[in-house]
Design a protein that fits this description.
With about 325 residues, the chain is an alpha/beta fold. Helices cover about 30% and strands about 10% of the residues. It has one domain: Aldolase class I (TIM Barrel). Strands 6-5-4-3-2-1-7-8 form an 8-stranded mixed beta sheet.
């Protein structure tokens, strides 16, 4: 259920923009981000999607085909697959193959939790991703076992290290055609440390202890929605954390926000401004739900973006986006 911290309309974020004579509108679409479902092999404390092993929401092949048909009529260069664990839907490989058939140069991103790559039934998945030159953006909330396992579950750190070593063996993080980026989420109700500093720490610790190489570290602020919001409420820290985000508002982050150049698509094909809005049910609507195949891609520039109080999470401090810090 959406709280007073996560709603559309004249929320506190919209009020902040109005006070500063600012607005938030879409630019040209560069990324089609598709949340293919909420099924996941992990149940992470910080998960804004509430993903887990028992979730039933999975994109069907019919929906995949309709998305591909829409994509074929556009020049959108990047398809970003997320979940849940996107690799767990039956048509994950089919989706990537269809995108590459449209145009081999179309860029595909897999937002991977790493551990799925070493689970039974997925052992050849890393090779498939490498063959298709799929970029991997992998969640790795810390370089220490204690912090990772606390946030993601026992044994997750060890599985993640094994997966990273596998990816390195295939050229990921080494071959320029196989980019491997890691994602850091704070292990609590605070903002990330500076991205460059954390990246240097990760490269030193993972390199020295495990021989692991990767390209970039992206810092992403935990947004007060989904499972993380429930955690904050349970610990009576939701108001406190919201105040941290509000006080750290940085107007310089607005131009780089992912909602400006990304279309977010749900597992049924419905359309949103971003993945966070998607999890809050803030769907594009014109008297009835709007699906991707109903959208004219050339008509989206300057469309006003739907906001909520949660948007303070993306504009706090150095900013937060699917590609990490913004300023």
């Amino acid at each position: 259920m959406a709280s007073r911290y996560c709603c559309s309309g004249m929320n506190r974020f919209a009020q902040k923009l109005t006070e500063q004579s600012m607005s938030l509108h879409r630019a040209r679409t560069q990324i089609l981000q598709v949340n293919v479902g909420k099924l996941c092999n992990l149940t992470c404390v910080h998960c804004h999607v509430n993903a887990g092993p028992k979730r039933k929401e999975i994109m069907t092949r019919k929906t995949v085909d309709r998305i591909i048909d829409w994509l074929a009529k556009t020049d959108v260069p990047t398809v970003d697959l997320t979940g849940g664990a996107p690799e767990m839907i039956p048509d994950f490989r089919y989706f990537i193959e269809r995108v590459k058939e449209l145009q081999p140069s179309r860029h595909v991103i897999d937002r991977c939790n790493l551990t799925i790559l070493v689970e039974d039934g997925y052992h050849d998945l890393a090779e498939f991703l490498a063959a298709g030159q799929v970029e991997i953006i992998a969640s790795m909330p810390c370089y220490s076992a204690e912090n990772v396992n606390a946030q993601r579950g026992d044994g997750v750190f060890e599985g993640s290290i094994t997966a990273l070593q596998l990816l390195n063996s295939l050229g990921y993080g080494i071959d320029p055609a196989l980019p491997l980026h890691l994602v850091y989420n704070p292990v609590g109700a605070f903002l990330p440390a500076p991205q460059e500093q954390l990246e240097a720490d990760y490269k030193r610790e993972l390199g020295n202890h495990f021989g692991i190489q990767f390209n970039r570290l992206y810092t992403i602020t935990n947004l007060p929605i989904g499972r993380f919001a429930a955690y904050l409420r349970h610990n009576n820290r939701l108001d406190e954390y919201m105040q941290v985000l509000i006080e750290a508002f940085n107007p310089a982050t607005l131009n780089g926000l992912m909602c400006r150049n990304t279309i977010s698509v749900g597992w049924r094909g419905e359309v949103y401004d971003c993945d966070f809005n998607q999890q809050l049910g803030m769907q594009w609507n014109n008297g009835q739900p709007i699906f991707l195949w109903d959208v004219d891609p050339d008509s989206l520039e300057q469309r006003e973006i739907m906001t909520g109080d949660h948007c303070f999470g993306c504009t706090a401090g150095a900013g937060s986006s699917c590609g990490g810090a913004l300023v």
